[in-house]
Design goal:
33% helix, 4 helices, mainly alpha
């Protein structure tokens, strides 16, 4: 190839202290409550319970706040840390469950 591409790591997620300190029991309780099934051969990031735990830029958080979103939907809570970590995932959820953030 005539192009020399520079490889980059697709890991934009930094686990917040709140998420890091969440116990396995708390994570399991959240997953069970929201009927989230995680199947992975490698460690899956813990879900975020509040948007502030995602480590998003203040400009993105301002849009979330402006639109009145209180907390991530279950698929956002588990999916965003996975996607921001550069990992592959398949998420299945009901229609109008918050897969895209509008």
């Amino acid at each position: 190839s005539p192009y020399k591409l520079i490889p980059f790591q697709k890991n934009f997620y930094n686990e917040s202290p709140e998420v890091a300190n969440r116990s396995d029991a708390e994570v399991e309780e959240y997953l069970t409550k929201h009927q989230i099934a995680v199947t992975s051969h490698e460690r899956c990031p813990k879900p975020i319970i509040e948007f502030k735990e995602a480590g998003l830029k203040s400009s993105i958080m301002a849009v979330i706040d402006k639109n009145g979103f209180k907390s991530p939907t279950p698929i956002q809570a588990q999916g965003w840390p996975i996607a921001l970590s550069g990992k592959d995932m398949v998420g299945v959820a009901q229609t109008v469950s918050g897969k895209p953030l509008r």
